[in-house]
Amino acid sequence: MTTYVGNRVARVDSVDKVTGRAVYGVDVALPGMLHGAVVRSPYPHARIVSIDTSAAERAPGVVAVATGKDFPHLFGAAIKDQPFLAIDRVRYVGDPVVAVAATSEREAQYARDLVRVEYEELPAITDMQMALDDDAPLVHPDLHTYERGGHEIVPHTNINTLYHFERGDVDAAFAEADHVFEAEYSAHALSHVTLEVHVAVAQYDTYSGDYTLWVTTDRPYFLRDDLAGGLGVDGSKIRLKVAQVGGSFGAKGVPIAEAIAVMLARKTSGRPVKVELTREECLIASQLRVPAIMKLKTGVTNEGFMIARSADVLWDSGAYTAYTVGVAIRGSQTIVGPYRIPNVKIRSRQVYTNKAITGSYRGYGTTQVTWACESQMDEIANELGIDPVVFRLQNGYEEGDPYLNGQIMHGVGLRETIETARDEIGWGSVERKPAPHLRRGKGLATMIKPTLTPSSSNVVINLGQDGRVQVVCAAPEVGSGQDTVLAQMAADAVGVPIDVVSVPATDTALTPYNGPVASSRTTYHMGNAIVAAGAEIREKVLGLAADFFGTDADYLEMYDGEIRDENGELLITLKDLLARHQSEGYALTAGGRYSSTGSPLLKANPGEEWISSIFWMLCTQAAEIEVDTETGVIRVIKVAASADVGKAINPMTCEQQVEGGVVMGLSNGLFEDFKIDNGRIENASLVDYKVATIEDMPEIVPILVESVHNEAPFGAKGIGEPAAAATPPAIANALFDAVGIRIRDLPITPEKVLAALAEKAATEPGD
Amino acid sequence: MTFRIDTTINGDRTVIDVDPTLTLLEVLREQLLLSGTKEGCGVGECGTCVVLCDGEPIASCLVLAGDAAGCSIETIEGLADSGELSDVQRAFVRTGALQCGFCTPAMVLTATALLREDAAPDAEEVKKALGGILCRCGAYPKILEAVLEVSGEGA
If DSSP codes are grouped into helix, strand and coil, which group holds residue A231? Predict the structure, then answer.
């Protein structure tokens, strides 16, 4: 029985947020706090000839100046290739070179402008194809010497990731196929545009050598390890306190402001240092979505069954790898889509370029490959004269199908997401021409995504003498409503009213290890840990009650803070029970842990278990659009977005994720477009890099499909990422339906629409 | 160098000495410690710093503090200072019209200003009024729902 799980519980953070009381990273202010500013490279690739900081050091208010040579360590998730500040060489426009701390922000900025750096420009790699040339200059000539994990690189080239996957016999299957389709698709760089900029406050304890940071991050323990790497200290020397996070979407994981802040803090005698990037700095020098060029070839039978697919994917990590290696490997796998294709061959390569750093972005590679996969699905169906919905359904995964690595898939609600999205959009009926220059169409796209596997979550649940329950865990609220969802699960697991439950802010000195708040993994993983700890607390409470009433705990139950016997008769409230121990003082505590390691669900072909996912995310979207054939402007009228969430712990917060994902996907697909010239981003402002506003919002109908997942807490999977991936291809497929043009490179701009319409008119004068 | 301005902030007469080069946003956040007003870009592009000036939504990052002399400024802190949430705030909570919450003060204030002018705006009018404030979480559908809910109550 659940009291809170499954209900539209108001968000526990909502009163703080509507009253402006929520304290974000930008609001942190400490006594004696200094402010930092950063000198950045104006060149995409250059040798640092000399750095003169003497004038800056003499400037008013300046307390500390740091250069790369002060911290000659490298950090990185998969390849340790990045210093906090450039050492000898800068690799992109915006690469940090010198940092200055002063008593005010203005003094810091004034001093920054007095730093003199002499550069010798080097030939730059400004696009990813160029990086593959035999005589291409190397962005990292020392790549082969860097410390790294187990993945493959190609030494003495710009290729920092090489991955192959093969199953079956693709060449034979292509020969056998009745139809073979081949095309190239591309996905562009995107900024997360978290409305809160990157910010951090750091303080160094000159006696213990410990660092304390006030940050806004989605992955405190990963960030801590990256910071430790760059500082050359043990992770235990760093404590992170996480403030409210003003948006992440994957942005707030790697050291950006944090790196600058710790270095400057280390160079002061214990004064806290705040580093707050400008919006322009966030756009050019935080991290972007990894751009990708995807060649996709698919073999199909006359009956519309896919029998072979090969993919050749090229990814652009930018100047350093950060979290991109996982994107290039995990992301490339899902280019096969949620489809049974017996013969598969994937080659994925990622290259360094002298461009902005890229990394994790809501979907971790899925948004890029979904664009290619779902565009081609539509092309194949249209070419063969099969309904695109039918084509997907007849090839789509069902419960119990084996994944690419042989994992038997569990909790697969794909069919239901496709059917509900199809029905909601009114598939098959469309008002073609509302006006001579306006044309309408409908399109559909789906997607699949694994979650980070294996990974673990840990929690400590405290029940105090006052009856209050604390859920102590390192899962920062990044906006997704997860504090609420965790509180709901804790309230039901323990058996108390939700208003006595709190989820304290993450502090790595207090909150036990958790994997990242990423990969849509928190509800599932932390939820399982909470269910375990909550059950233990409840058991202890019932034991206490059983002692008191002289009965057996097995006959007792607790819901909503009320302890009842087997007939449902109220015996005592939790508050009264605890009050009986008032004089001695009382507290109960329980730890919960969940790790997907060793789960029987992950069983797969030998050597390929690492490809398994503890749960699979599936989301289908159907869009109706109207295109103005005179201007090329697309107006999205409606999106039906159907997501398989396993179980909606809170339907309201699930809808928030689905609706927000559609808004982001629409913005990514139609508006957001960096103008990059010779490696330099030329439109680093929110006027020139357009993000969707409420006026661009179509009618959005979120649909929550609840497939059953047996290992999930209350059956719940994850929802944060998948909702953003299917929107751009759904729109592109609707555009094809409306006017018969196919855009294969994102974004779908009016210019591209007009060019494609003109090309079509030239080749098909009758239309 | 500072100069004195005489203004009203959330209903209270406030006389303060300000650096004439500071924006209203900087003075609100750093001098008056009203940190509910957020900065998302500092150059008038994102709308998160909206406050009400004589009832009108303005981007406080584009206004020098000195220009607030003689004005009545309302910030998010002023809406529920009696301890009771306003109708708009309650509707935001009820419908779930917020996610990370960074744009929420600006959205709530702008919606409040709109509803004072027009008790029953329609969806298009609400969208137009809120069109200058970015919400990257994409809470727009529920923000619209929240404002229309209050609009319905007012009608």
Answer: helix
Q: In what order do the strands lie in the sheet with B3-9?
A: B12-18, B3-9, B72-74, B50-53, B56-59
Distance in Å from the first CA to the final CA of chain A? 61
ipTM: 0.98
Main-chain dihedrals φ then ψ at residue B68, nearest 5 degrees: -85, -5
Digit-coded pLDDT (tens) for A147-198: 999 999 999 999 999 999 999 999 999 999 999 999 999 999 999 999 999 9
CB pairs under 8 A between A and B: 165
Tokens describing residue A106: 């203005």
Q: What one-character DSSP code corresponds to residue A582?
A: T
Per-residue pLDDT band for B155 (boundaries 50, 70, 90) equals very low
- Among B residues 2-61, those touching chain A with beta carbons less than 8 Å apart: 34-43, 45-46, 48
CA angle A160, A683, A316 (to 5 degrees): 10
User: Which of B92, B93, B100 should we substitute to test contact with A (largest number of A Cβ atoms within 10 Å)?
Assistant: B100
* Cβ–Cβ contact A104 with B under 8 A: no
What is residue A61's three-state secondary structure? coil
| Chain B interface test: which of A195, A666, A703, A704 (most B C-beta within 10 Å) | A195
Tokens 């029953």 locate to B120
Which domains are seen in chain A, by residue range?
Answer: 14-21+455-595 (3.30.365.10), 32-122+198-276 (3.90.1170.50), 288-452+602-763 (3.30.365.10)
Under an 8 A CB cutoff, do A693 and B134 touch? yes
Q: At A658, which amino acid appears? A: V
Residues A501-557: pLDDT tens digits?
Answer: 999 999 999 999 999 999 999 999 999 999 999 999 999 999 999 999 999 999 999
Which of A11, A19, A361 is the best mutation test for B, with the most CBs of B within 10 A? A19
Beta-bridge partners for A244:
A24
Contact call for residues B147 and B111 (beta carbons, < 8 A): yes
Q: How far is CA A464 from CA A574, A575, A693, in A?
A: 11, 10, 45
Instruction: Go through the domains of chain B in sequence order and give each one's CATH number.
Output: 3-78 (3.10.20.30), 87-154 (1.10.150.120)
Distance from CA of B117 to the nearest CA of A (A): 20
